[in-house]
User: What shape does this take?
Amino acid sequence: MTREPFLDLLDAATQTLQAEFAGLPEFAPAPGADAEAMARVLAETAHRLGDNYPYFHPLYAGQMLKPPHPVARAAYALAMQINPNNHALDGGRASSAMEIEAVRAIAALFGWTEFLGHLTSSGTFANLESLWVAGQLRPGQRIVASEQAHFTHRRIGGVLRLEFAAIAADARGRMRLDALEDELRQGGVGAVVATLGTTAMGAVDPLDEILPLARRYGARVHVDAAYGGYFGLIADALDAPARRAYAAIGAADSIAIDPHKHGLQPYGCGCVLLRDPAVGRFYQHDSPYTYFTSKDLHLGEISLECSRAGAAAVALWATQRLLPLTNEGAFAEGLRRGRRAALDLDRRLRADGRFVSLAAGPPELDIVVWAVRAARGEESSRRAREIFDACARRDLHLALVQLPAAWFDAHGCAAEQGATLTCLRSVLMKPEHEAWMDAIWTRLLAACGEAGCG
Ligand SMILES: *Cc1c(COP(=O)(O)O)cnc(C)c1O
Assistant: This one.
């Protein structure tokens, strides 16, 4: 096995870091570490970790899992030697400055220079903060999101004690504007959540049309781009409707985006951006003990979470330093490769009579969903589960998703009115997926043969 490049990076950077504190008197850390005992425990730990799907490998093409970049892993491990807490400047001075710079670079993606924003532990928390602010500004009003939006929005509504309503989606999984207007007309809608990149199929809600509609009824617009936010960088590689939606993001009131999904970061790295910095007033609190050393802004003063991993900010800062968020360059190229892989798989599926693709057209981002052709809906669903298992036996890991049968070619898998199908789903978010498509396809067809679809 080859030595992990990040171990050498970490060794070299650790020496630089130690030199930064070289003026301090030596001390012996307590308790003394028993190297042999630690090695034993770590060997056991590594063994336990073997009981995972191989998320790092290109044949893992199931859920939204993407290995963090080596520079992110090295920077995170380096920061662990300090273990900064970005709650307050007392706990993480350098890492707070790095967080502010890193978040500013993400906001610039959407054309924002004056805003309020910070990292969060997750997309869920970024969405929670955005909708909490919406609830402060529109107390007691409803939150609405597409029925394909992440389930967390309904739950967040429960946490915030704000009513939630789901808006019907079209055959591409996008929020339907007529259904949205019906809901808005009833009055009392405080915030519309537009999802740019749904979790199930990477559908892009028509934000450019949602915005003026929501504004007409006085509702705020929150963009959940936890998954799809970075595709704004390569909007030129998307189809026209998605391109228009991404072009409109800057006019939204708030945005959630997850560096730990498509931003090459270890988990624990979401990001919330609020367009109007004045909403910072809602976070105000008096803490007698946290902020003493500086008059500068503390990130803890604009965050619902208190202790936050400074290491997450350090890793993100280092990654963006190496791979700037530009339309050209290695980061954008990584996104483009996944997008091309998804279009390639979609073309192969459409040309193969054993499968049924979404009738409305190709994927909008890098997530492909498809059904198995069968005489009846139930059989199609059963076959999908069999293919899923047969793929896993060939080390190809896909995912399953329930979608309305009506969205697929009616002749392919006739199902009763209103029925859902179990479909296959593949998130092709690793740059390697493009080059691995032949290997993926060969295994899928073999699995299909084993499941008796021929
Ligand atoms: C993943 C996801 C979330 C939740 O984010 P976490 O980081 O998992 O908490 C919310 N919305 C969308 C669209 C997502 O894809």
The chain has two domains: 93-322, 330-450. The pocket of pyridoxal-5'-phosphate is lined by residues 122-124, 127, 150, 152, 195, 198-199, 224, 226-227, 258, 261, 270 (CB under 6 Å). The mean pLDDT is 94.
